[in-house]
Design goal:
The chain is of the alpha+beta class. It contains 12 helices and 17 strands. It has helices at 2-52, 55-78, 82-103, 136-139, 142-148, 164-173, 185-198, 212-216, 280-286, 294-306, 365-373, 442-461, and strands at residues 116-117, 124-128, 152-155, 178-182, 202-205, 234-246, 269-272, 275-279, 314-318, 321-324, 328-333, 355-360, 381-386, 388-393, 397-402, 405-410, 413-427. Strands 1, 2, 3, 4, 5, 6, 7, 9, 10, 14 and 17 form an 11-stranded mixed sheet that branches. A hairpin with a 2-residue loop joins strand 15 (397-402) and strand 16. Helix 1 (2-52) crosses helix 3 (82-103) and helix 1 (2-52) runs antiparallel to helix 11 (365-373). The radius of gyration is 26 Å and the shape is globular.
């Protein structure tokens, strides 16, 4: 019943939005609508010029980006049609919201993997970083709560750097039957590699800053202490892990990896739970000035990087697909949602057995405008999946961001997926991962509204 009425509301609101434009706007609005689309294209082009130029050109581009929307609004106001546009946009927004409600699925439990019953660990071992997430370990009393539940807890000393992978490996050799981390995704990845190596469960405590991995597992990121419920009332998931390896001769690609350690020497592999980024972003975060002044560093470096005047030129092969000279490449442990081309959102699944590959190659202002007008779809963006990705460059080494950590890796760099490599222990009751906001298929909305209505009517007559 709810979905049927949502579909009907979507159709009614969409029709009303069109009627408002036709009845009150007429031909004048059709012309001004073309002006609005041209304005969006100019704004996208201006944004591209801002990113790829400096000095007076950048200043003029910024002025264009600011002036275009003001000019478009002034035209609508002068024509007396601004209220028509606002009402029509409001009705259309309602139509899209109702359409998505009608088509949306329920919230998932996280990771898309089947749950398995799990017994409570006997000797859980947790590593906690007191600096992660602005001090969440201390703020939520995570260490003491975990100890009260029977876990051995090591709180890292910020003044004495430890190899968390070796710390976890020693704990397993001493009898630990579960490893866990309260910290950032980089630390999560290094300890997860050890858990996968010994095939014991791994537990995530959402005490980091962004908590991308925890969110994709459906964990509570507002109150990390709820993640500790996995110690006493947990279930187990089998999820994939991404592996990245540097300096591997092409002849070894068909063979099995020689190890799953977290070292950075030639021929060794490193785990990533989220993604590995190449190109523009990786180049920027390698700059010593980035940490002190992020915005200024980005604006200073982008023109040369986007126009290939600086930085390594990449050649990427994702399975059989070849990508030549992209400006940025993001390789993720399972693909990100299609509606999130920047790779900053959620993954519906962590057990698809495939890497996600997002490649950006925008050469002109026209291509930038196309991407904007088509909602992130266009010639400049390639989104595919692959089991293996190989990155070559015209330099002996390239900067790579692995789960947010800046590294320099020798080429070629190989990324692969290890299906079901990690056992993850999560609380039985957790928020879950909200489903993707599905694009509205108006044909499906219409069929849903009408067919369900006829079915209901038939049942009533019977």
């Amino acid at each position: 019943m709810r979905r049927r009425w949502a579909a009907r509301l979507a159709l009614a609101s969409g029709l009303a939005a069109l009627l408002v434009l036709v009845v009150f706007g007429g031909l004048a609005h059709v012309l001004l609508l073309g002006v609005a689309w041209a304005g969006l294209a100019l704004m996208a082009a201006g944004g591209w010029w801002m990113l790829t130029h400096t000095g007076a050109t950048r200043a003029l581009a910024a002025l264009l980006v600011a002036a275009v929307p003001v000019a478009v609004l002034a035209l609508y106001t002068t024509a007396g049609l601004l209220w028509v546009v606002l009402v029509s946009l409001g009705l259309w927004a309602l139509a899209v919201f109702a359409g998505r409600t009608a088509l949306a699925e329920d919230t998932g439990s996280g990771a898309g993997a089947p749950e398995r019953a799990a017994t409570s660990p006997v000797r859980p071992f947790l590593i906690m970083n007191p600096l992660s997430g602005g001090g969440k370990v201390e703020r939520f009393g995570l260490a003491q709560q975990a100890r009260d539940l029977g876990a051995e807890v090591v709180v890292l000393d910020p003044d004495h750097r430890l190899d968390v992978a070796e710390l976890a490996r020693q704990a397993v050799e001493d009898g630990a039957d579960l490893l866990g981390v309260a910290g950032g995704d980089g630390t999560q990845a290094r300890v997860a590699a050890v858990a996968a190596e010994y095939d014991i469960p791994f537990m995530v405590v959402s005490a980091g800053t962004r908590n991308h991995f925890a969110m994709d597992l459906g964990l509570d990121c507002r109150d990390p202490s709820r993640c500790l419920q996995a110690l006493t009332d947990g279930v187990e998931l089998r999820i994939d892990l991404g592996f990245i390896r540097e300096g591997e001769p092409a002849g070894e690609l068909a063979g099995e990896p020689t190890g799953s350690g977290s070292g950075s020497g030639s021929g060794s592999e490193r785990v990533f739970v989220n993604n590995a980024s190449f190109g523009v972003y990786a180049e920027v975060v390698q700059s010593p000035a980035y940490r002190d002044d992020k915005i200024r560093t980005i604006l200073e470096m982008l023109p040369a990087l986007l126009t290939h005047a600086d930085g390594a030129r990449l050649d990427v092969r994702a399975d059989s697909l070849a990508l030549t000279g992209p400006q940025a490449v993001l390789v993720s442990n399972n693909p990100y949602r299609r509606g999130d081309p920047a790779g900053l959102g959620r993954r519906e699944r962590l057990n698809s057995g495939e890497l996600g590959v997002l490649s950006v190659d925008v050469a002109t202002a026209a291509e930038a405008a196309e991407l904007m007008l088509r909602g992130g779809q266009g010639r400049g963006l390639t989104a595919v999946t692959a089991r293996e990705v190989l990155v070559h460059a015209d330099a002996p080494a390239v900067p790579v961001g692995v789960d947010g950590e800046a590294l320099m890796l020798s080429v070629p760099v190989r990324c692969r997926i290890a299906p079901g490599a990690l056992r993850v222990r999560v609380p039985r009751h957790r928020p879950g991962v909200p489903r993707e906001a599905v694009p509205v298929d108006w044909r499906r909305v219409r069929q849903l509204a009408l067919s369900m209505g006829r079915t209901a009517a038939g049942r009533g007559a019977a």
